[in-house]
Design goal:
By secondary structure, the protein is an alpha+beta fold. Helices cover 42% and strands 10% of the residues. Helix 2 packs across helix 8. The longest helix has 22 residues.
């Protein structure tokens, strides 16, 4: 597979979008105009991928490969405590492996590809089915059944399974582990991360967790990074609060390419391949 090689039309569409809309960095809760632009962005990249015979042949080859990583057995490959927060028939909910607080990555240049999450307690919903990306036809097959299941899984987890507390516990573990690494000097210590910064990181968590538990599912952005602007070759949905206070120390470098789930569903619905009724 040569997924790192450019696919005709796809990279060009992504670069055009970036150059036109990069001024929207940080505005992840989109205005109606911005939402329409994100729909167009998704539609262009999806169509460029699916209309390219080479990309579809490579996708079939990728699907045929022996896959030693079975997403149905994700827990066996990831024994970290608190990583898997919930499991359904079709998806997992996991906590992010990186801290949401950029102050815990003092050696990473500000304008580089930042490692921290996109918002406080950034989490993910991972498909169990082996699907490459949201542009993969299987991602939106059967009237977007899998995408609807991923959303329903997270919403039910949040509302009925003490989801906020479980996400907070995972995020606190990651923050504390990162703090210990930095303070021990084993993970790239820096004079920019001292006792004062460590204390501020902890205080920010304590302050925001009180607000986090009061959020409703509608206050969280669910979205995708569309190929070729994705970093991981497996379908997953990012979930994080879109309020600015929840993103104060998180990266905004990926905002331009974060397409809301609802934008994907609306595009598919408009073309007869999505939920019949709009979401309430």
């Amino acid at each position: 597979m040569s997924w790192i090689e450019p696919i005709t039309g796809v990279v060009e569409a992504a670069l055009l979008y970036f150059s036109r809309y990069r001024s929207h960095y940080g505005k992840v809760a989109p205005t109606q105009k911005r939402f329409s632009e994100l729909k167009d962005y998704y539609r262009k990249l999806r169509d460029s991928f699916r209309s390219n015979s080479r990309s579809l042949l490579e996708l079939k080859e990728w699907q045929r490969q022996n896959n030693t990583f079975n997403y149905q057995e994700y827990a066996l490959h990831n024994p970290q405590p608190l990583l898997i927060l919930s499991e359904s028939t079709h998806s997992y909910i996991i906590g992010n492996v990186a801290s949401y607080d950029g102050r815990q990555y003092p050696l990473v240049p500000p304008n580089s590809n930042r490692p921290e999450g996109q918002g406080f307690c950034h989490s993910l919903v991972i498909a169990k089915t082996r699907i490459y990306n949201i542009v993969d036809p299987d991602a939106t097959a059967n009237g977007c059944f899998l995408l609807e299941e991923m959303r329903a899984h997270f919403t039910n987890f949040w509302r009925h399974d003490d989801g906020a507390s479980k996400i907070l516990a995972r995020a606190k573990q990651v923050v504390d582990d990162r703090d210990e690494i930095l303070r021990s000097g084993n993970g790239g210590s820096s004079p920019d991360y001292d006792d004062s910064v460590s204390r501020d990181v902890s205080l920010y968590f304590e302050d925001m967790k009180k607000k986090f538990v009061e959020l409703e599912a509608k206050d969280l952005l669910m979205g995708f990074h569309v190929f070729p602007d994705n970093s991981i070759g497996h379908l997953h949905m990012h979930v994080f609060p879109h309020g600015e206070s929840f993103r104060q120390y998180s990266t905004k470098m990926h905002d331009w390419k974060t397409v809301p789930l609802q934008a994907v569903l609306e595009v598919e619905r408009e073309e007869g391949n999505g939920p019949i009724e709009p979401d309430s």
